[in-house]
Amino acid sequence: MDVHEALYTTRMMRRLRPEPIPLDTQARILDAAVRAPNGGNTQRWHFVAVDNRKLIGKFARLFREARALEYEKFRTGKGPMVMPAPGADPATHAETMRRIKGSGDYLADHFERVPLLLFVFAIDDLGGANIYPAIWSALLAARAEGVGGVLTMVLNNSRDRVNELLGVPVEEGWKMAAMLTLGYPLGKWGLAANRRPVHEVSSRNGWGEPFGVEVPQPLWPPHGTADLAAAG
Q: Up-side HSE of residue 71: CA atoms within 13 Å toward CB?
């Protein structure tokens, strides 16, 4: 798969089929993840793949409880993503959040059917500088294998219980960075076209200064030189 196709079409997939992901496919996904750049090649990461159905059932209950806490925060105006981004339309933001909740509800309701959970742990990670490139590499590699997934932080609300269920040696400093739900998607891959264009969210040599070029449409698939327009 062309790298640009992977970059432009990898998206959050919450509706997953229950059939298992072969171990050799899982190995290729994680082998790509551990090739990610990391400071000093210190490789301060550990991945825990969970495909035991009984254990996934326990995480399903935790996920639903933790998610309920997040949406209670959102309902009371305290959670992340409550306010639209600067310059964004409030009505559009509200509709986006409604759709996110809908797809998230599906994942929560069908969590027991997810074939693979991938817990990602890091140690002394300086805000994620080392672990998030590895996570993104895993998602891109999964895309190349036809595997979809979603990165979620919601189980941070139940971090102690996660550590207990997985036997994490927290005394060594390991902390959960994220969990990925992985599986073959029910939906279709597609270009993420509903993005604000580059020139609206980018500046050059100072905040708010013109970026210098306009990108009126996605640059993949390539359309030709008309894709870029010099800013007036």
A: 14
Listed range (2-11, 74-83, 147-156) with the worst mean pLDDT: 74-83
154 shares its domain with 222: no
Closest CA to 181 of 119, 124, 133: 119
> Do 207 and 184 belong together in one domain?
no
215 and 168 in a common domain: no
pLDDT level of residue 219 (50, 70, 90 thresholds): very high
Residue 232 reports pLDDT greater than 50: no
CA distance 103 to 113: 15
Measured N-to-C along each axis, helices 90-109 and 53-75 cross at an angle, to the nearest 10 degrees, of 150
What's the pTM? 0.87
The position carrying tokens 């964004």 is 88
Q: Are 177 and 144 in the same domain?
A: yes
For the cut 90, the answer to whether the pLDDT of residue 149 exceeds it is yes
Q: What is the C-alpha separation between 51 and 24, in angstroms, rounded?
A: 14
Least confidently predicted of 5-9, 25-29, 125-129, 149-153: 125-129
Residues 109 and 30 in one domain: yes
| Contact in structure between 185 and 16 (CB atoms under 8 Å) | yes
Residues 107 and 214 in one domain: no
Q: Find the domain containing 115 and state its range.
A: 3-194
* Domain total of the chain: 2
